[in-house]
């Protein structure tokens, strides 16, 4: 039963009729319906700065023949609007001779509960907690000059109506709690941000005063950076800490293994399946099935159940991440990676939770083995050029390593590397795999989707550090 | 196509009167509609097409000094009623902030709207496809252009009404035509990509397809078989498309919100020298047909033309009502950020700029976020071309460039080749003495 058509003038029967007629002789396509509720409550500069609540409802109608996608979306869910979209799709796909694949695999897998996180915590208690975070942070030390904290909650209901009347549904909660803190001492200022989140209620992340840990962590990083010195410039050995630094994997190889870039042969990895792309001992998966994680999905945005996809096994490239379109054109099957930011966007193959599995080295061993290098503990964000393979990420907490020992903290620097070769430079894989705290958003083609990353500590032989000290 | 003023105004008025009825003392509402049609091609063949229709409202209600907001794309009357009810209920709970208010009535925009921001032209999809195909054809006519990341053409039309309980109610239509071409070059195992794009309010003003394709191809070809250089201090020339990013960093750092909170490296720099004497920066909303032009900001305040930097001195900030009160400055209509922000031309020619030293690194692409606006620290990944004795010598990639914006700003020299291609624009820029991280 469609819930999202219930309060509209469009009946399921009429929708079915328009969908089936429009998608006749198409290779694929569907009507995607979405209803999202979104809330942010922000404290900034000692004041509750805003409380914003929004709802967004709409549909995206997609028709595909061969490799051509026609798409039309609107937030007016009515017979008239859908018919207009249908006309627009048909005018684009003039000659079509495809075979619609009616069957879509179904499971009852659930990796998160159907809750509305906005409603499970009252506005009053959110305001109270934001005030507590502000007061607690400012009371830690007189150097704390600014605190900004926010609750960001979302409930997204989606429905996929396929030709022939098939209906697939998912209901997705998502929350984030963020804190950003600016400290100032002896004329120097530094800022640090920290946050947690995932697909469950806020309170799961706030149990037993654990909100204090968010403030403590932001404070620790900000004050560490007050003592930072200019970062060196040039090539050196890099030890990456566990967890967040897996942005490296996301940028360096994750994007390059998305099906679209490989079908189009614009990825530096497109002809490397079966080849060695990483050092022995490096295994990387993309997993949509971890309970309550930010990047997890019961089904993707085409209705395909998500799975745990092995991308690289012991250094050998095994699989790309696929949506239905790219899988069909590459004669393989969707891995449940078809995602979109919302109904306003077309589906693209996107990452979920991208993770490098543990090896058997300790972080201590790695640091001991480095004469001159840097130890990167946390990153802000990253970016990659898929075609040349060059990627960067920005350190937000890093230290120099001299003669096998951790030295002074370093000013935030950009690290740059080459995707296809960087994982071949992995010298040691740690035994301490950790997932990130659950606040990552990946951008591609103007669409942001929530993702997760994870990795153990890593020792990389050679990366270029963008510091100012020669 | 897009909704007309009467429809949008009616919705706006309904929202305001409903909010008032439920007990809000002041309110402000934005009702907007946009329709866009985009086509994408790949290897000179249709790849996809998207038609987008967006309609939405955003409402802020006040009860005294308490404030809360809602927004929605569902204009169904019952849904709106529920949301406005929710908004007013939330407003009652939010603690007071004595600085909350609508903008000062005296500052509202009044007058004629004659900036030519809307082009009536409607292009059939086939015409869009033909346009962008011609661009790819041109790119593929060059040796070693082997593939494309996709090229596209988009047409967007918008209309909106901004209204508030102080009696302000105004809006206008805007249009945007965008063409882009992104191609892949390949030679001796080296594969590179680059793009060119053009986005204008008027169809006739966008780059002609052949020029678009030729430029994208030239850029992608210039990058082939790059070298990594050693770490060293170099004079760097930034291509216009990168140079403008320093203006974006500046505009964030001089927003009244950053200044009020102290979260910017330019906190106490008003009326102080932050660039060298020869640098002048303006932000003007009233340039005809320009991408960044607007009549008023998101609070209805008219856009005041600003000399942000004059002879190197920071003379103005980007001020909105709320943060303006904190720093005791009147709003100058920048609650939506800068408008057309640009460096005035420098005195050197492009040739003089690239001949200013025997070795110059010309940067035309950066990746990564780059600027820390609290400390001014700047570090990005980059690629470009080595220039020796004024001639392009070889492409360079997988390097970083770093410095601090305080120093970078003081070491900027500008060429005399300013063009208004984007909302934020810079002539070609020379920055002396930046640190390059390489081998």
How many domains of chain A, as an integer?
A: 2
What global shape of chain A is seen? Answer: globular
Which structural class matches the secondary elements of chain A?
Answer: alpha+beta
Number of helices of chain B: 9
How many strands, which pairing sense, and closed or not: the largest β-sheet of chain A? Answer: 7 strands, mixed
Q: Largest interface: which pair?
A: A-B, 80 and 75 residues
> What class would the helix/strand composition of chain B place it in?
alpha+beta
The overall strand count of chain A is 22
SSE ordering of chain B: HEEEHHEEEEHEHHEEEHEHEEEHEEE
Uncertain stretches of 5 or more adjacent residues of chain A? none
Radius of gyration of chain A: 24 Å
Main beta-sheet strand count, sense and barrel state of chain B: 7 strands, antiparallel
Alpha-carbon Rg of chain B, integer: 24 Å
Ends apart, CA distance between termini of chain B: 56 Å
Question: Which percent range describes the beta-strand content of chain A?
Answer: 35-45%
Strand content of chain B: 35-45%
- Give the end-to-end Cα distance of chain A, rounded to a whole number of Å: 65 Å
Average residue-wise pLDDT of chain A: 94
Structure characteristics:
heterodimer; A: 470 residues; alpha+beta; PmbA/TldD fold; seven-stranded mixed beta sheet; B: 439 residues; seven-stranded antiparallel beta sheet; five-stranded mixed beta barrel; 9 helices; globular
Q: Can you walk me through this structure?
A:
The complex is a heterodimer of chains A (470) and B (439). Chain A has 470 residues and is α+β, with helices and mostly antiparallel strands. Chain A has helices spanning 12-22, 79-92, 123-140, 211-226, 247-254, 259-263, 324-329, 363-368, 419-422; strands spanning 28-44, 47-65, 68-74, 144-162, 167-185, 188-198, 233-240, 284-287, 308-313, 316-317, 338-339, 348-349, 353-356, 372-384, 390-402, 405-410, 414-418, 426-429, 434-435, 440-444, 447-455, 458-466. Chain A has 2 domains: 123-161 and 168-226, PmbA/TldD fold (2-Layer Sandwich); 233-466, no CATH class. Chain A contains 9 helices and 22 strands. In chain A, strands 8, 9, 10, 13, 19, 20 and 21 form a 7-stranded mixed beta sheet that branches. Chain A is globular. With 439 residues, chain B is α+β, with helices and mostly antiparallel strands. Helices cover 23% and strands 37% of the residues of chain B. Chain B is built from 9 helices and 18 strands. The radius of gyration of chain B is 24 Å and the shape is globular. Chain B starts with a helix and ends with a strand. At the A-B interface, strand 2, strand 3, helix 2, helix 3 and strand 6 of A face strand 2, strand 3, helix 2, strand 4 and strand 7 of B. Strand 3 (68-74) of chain A pairs parallel with strand 2 of chain B, so a sheet runs across the interface.
């Amino acid at each position: 039963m469609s819930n999202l058509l219930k309060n509209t003038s469009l009946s399921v029967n009429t929708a079915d009729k328009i969908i089936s007629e429009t998608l006749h002789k198409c290779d694929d396509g569907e009507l995607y319906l979405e209803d999202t509720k979104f809330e942010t409550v922000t404290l900034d500069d000692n004041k509750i700065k805003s409380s914003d609540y929004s709802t967004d409802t709409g549909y995206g109608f997609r028709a595909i023949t061969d490799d051509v996608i026609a798409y039309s979306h609107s937030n007016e869910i009515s017979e008239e609007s859908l018919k207009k979209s249908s006309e627009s799709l048909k005018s684009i796909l003039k000659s079509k001779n495809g075979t619609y694949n009616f069957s879509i695999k179904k499971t009852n897998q659930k990796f998160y509960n159907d809750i509305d996180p906005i409603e499970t915590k009252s506005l009053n208690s959110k305001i109270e907690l934001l005030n507590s975070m502000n007061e607690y942070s400012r009371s830690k030390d007189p150097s704390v000059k600014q605190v900004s904290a926010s609750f960001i909650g979302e409930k997204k209901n989606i429905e996929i109506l396929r030709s022939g009347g098939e209906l697939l549904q998912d209901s997705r909660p998502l929350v984030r709690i963020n804190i950003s803190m600016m400290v100032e001492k002896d004329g120097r200022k530094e800022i640090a941000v920290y946050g947690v989140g995932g697909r469950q209620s806020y309170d799961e992340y706030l149990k037993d005063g654990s909100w204090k840990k968010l403030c403590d962590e932001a404070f620790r990083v900000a004050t560490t950076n007050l003592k930072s010195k200019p970062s060196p410039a040039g090539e050196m050995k890099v030890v990456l800490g566990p967890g967040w630094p897996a942005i490296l994997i996301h940028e360096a190889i994750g994007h390059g293994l998305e099906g679209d870039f490989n079908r189009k042969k614009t990825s530096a990895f497109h002809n490397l399946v079966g080849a060695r792309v990483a050092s022995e001992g490096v295994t990387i998966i993309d997993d949509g099935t971890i309970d309550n994680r930010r990047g997890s999905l019961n089904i993707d945005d085409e209705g395909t159940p998500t799975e745990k996809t092995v991308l690289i096994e012991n250094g050998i490239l095994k699989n790309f991440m696929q949506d239905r379109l790219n899988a069909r054109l590459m004669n393989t099957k969707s891995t449940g990676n078809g995602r979109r930011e919302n109904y306003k966007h077309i589906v693209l193959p996107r990452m979920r939770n991208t993770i490098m599995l543990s090896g058997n080295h300790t972080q201590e061993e790695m640091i001991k083995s480095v004469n001159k290098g840097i130890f990167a503990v946390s990153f802000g964000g990253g970016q990659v050029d898929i075609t040349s393979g060059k990627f960067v990420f920005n350190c937000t907490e890093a230290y120099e390593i001299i003669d096998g020992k951790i030295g002074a903290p370093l000013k935030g620097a950009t690290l740059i590397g080459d995707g296809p070769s960087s994982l071949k430079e992995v010298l040691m894989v740690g035994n301490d795999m950790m997932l990130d705290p659950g606040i990552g958003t990946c951008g591609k083609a103007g669409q942001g989707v929530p993702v997760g990353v994870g990795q153990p500590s890593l020792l990389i032989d050679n990366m270029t550090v963008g510091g100012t000290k020669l | 196509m897009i909704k007309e003023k009467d429809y949008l105004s009616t919705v706006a008025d309904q929202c305001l009167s409903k909010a008032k009825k439920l007990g809000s003392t002041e309110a402000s509402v934005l009702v907007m509609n946009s329709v866009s049609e985009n086509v994408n091609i790949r290897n000179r063949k249709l790849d996809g097409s998207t038609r987008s229709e967006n309609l939405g409202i955003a409402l802020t209600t006040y009860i005294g000094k308490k404030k809360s907001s809602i927004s929605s794309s569902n204009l169904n009357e019952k849904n709106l009623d529920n949301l406005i009810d929710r908004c007013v209920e939330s407003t009652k709970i939010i603690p007071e902030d004595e600085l909350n208010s609508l903008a000062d009535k005296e500052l509202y925009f009044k007058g004629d709207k004659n900036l030519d921001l809307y082009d009536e032209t409607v292009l059939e999809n086939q015409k869009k496809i033909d346009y962008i195909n011609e661009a790819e054809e041109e790119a593929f006519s060059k040796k070693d252009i082997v593939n494309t990341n996709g090229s596209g053409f988009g047409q967007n039309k918008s209309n909106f009404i901004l209204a508030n309980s102080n009696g302000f109610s105004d809006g206008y239509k805007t249009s945007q035509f965008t063409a882009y071409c992104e191609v892949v070059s390949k030679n001796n195992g080296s594969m590179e990509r680059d793009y060119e794009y053009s986005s204008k309010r008027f169809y006739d003003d966008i780059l002609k397809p052949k020029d678009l394709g030729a430029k994208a191809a030239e850029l992608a070809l210039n990058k082939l078989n790059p070298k990594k250089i050693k770490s060293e201090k170099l004079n760097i020339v930034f291509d216009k498309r990168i140079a403008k990013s320093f203006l974006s960093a500046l505009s964030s750092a001089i927003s009244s919100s950053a200044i009020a909170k102290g979260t910017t490296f330019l906190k106490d720099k008003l009326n102080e020298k932050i660039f060298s004497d020869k640098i002048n920066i303006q932000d003007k909303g009233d340039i005809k047909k320009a991408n960044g032009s607007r009549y008023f900001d998101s609070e209805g305040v008219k856009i005041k033309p600003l000399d942000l930097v004059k002879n190197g001195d920071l003379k103005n900030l980007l001020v909105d009502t709320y943060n303006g009160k904190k720093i005791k400055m009147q709003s100058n209509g920048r609650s939506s950020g800068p408008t057309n922000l640009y460096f005035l031309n420098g005195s050197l020619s492009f040739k003089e700029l690239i001949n200013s030293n025997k070795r110059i690194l010309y940067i035309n692409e950066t990746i990564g976020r780059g600027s820390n606006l609290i400390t001014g620290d700047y570090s990005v990944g980059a690629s470009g071309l080595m220039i020796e004795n004024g001639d392009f010598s070889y492409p360079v990639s997988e390097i970083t460039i770093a410095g601090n914006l305080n120093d970078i700003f003081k070491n900027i020299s500008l060429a005399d080749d300013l063009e208004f291609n984007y909302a934020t624009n810079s002539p070609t820029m020379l920055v002396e003495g930046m640190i390059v991280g390489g081998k």
